[in-house]
Specification:
Helices cover 83% and strands 0% of the residues. The protein is an all-alpha fold and 109 residues long. The longest helix is centred in the middle third of the chain and has 34 residues.
């Protein structure tokens, strides 16, 4: 990035407070070149924790949707629930990707 690392770390914290995980990960990736500060590591760990919490929430919603789909005989309702389940799966995939990227960045140095 063009700004000093501490600015990107602060931007990542702001994004984390807003649950904007895409921006939090992006800012931390911009700040990760060279030796990582202890503050960078702490914020990265906070982001990873939040990603895991959000994945857990999406997985619980997905589980609930699957139970409701199995119990439903209404094809229209099942179709809407399947659409929601696909969106939940996509969200879990995105969050998992972010988590893997942050874990890899932590291991780098």
């Amino acid at each position: 990035g063009l700004l000093p690392r501490r600015y990107y770390v602060n931007f990542a914290l702001d994004a984390l407070a807003e649950d904007d995980m895409d921006e939090a990960v992006r800012c931390l990736e911009l700040a990760r070149s060279g030796v990582k500060s202890s503050r960078w590591r702490l914020v990265a760990q906070q982001v990873i924790f939040r990603l895991r919490v959000l994945k857990g929430l999406h997985n619980r919603e997905l589980e609930w949707l699957r139970e409701k789909m199995a119990a439903s005989s209404d094809p229209e309702l099942r179709g809407r629930m399947e659409e929601l389940a696909r969106a939940q799966n996509k969200a879990v995939g995105i969050l998992s990707d972010y988590e893997l990227r942050m874990l890899a960045a932590l291991k780098e140095g």
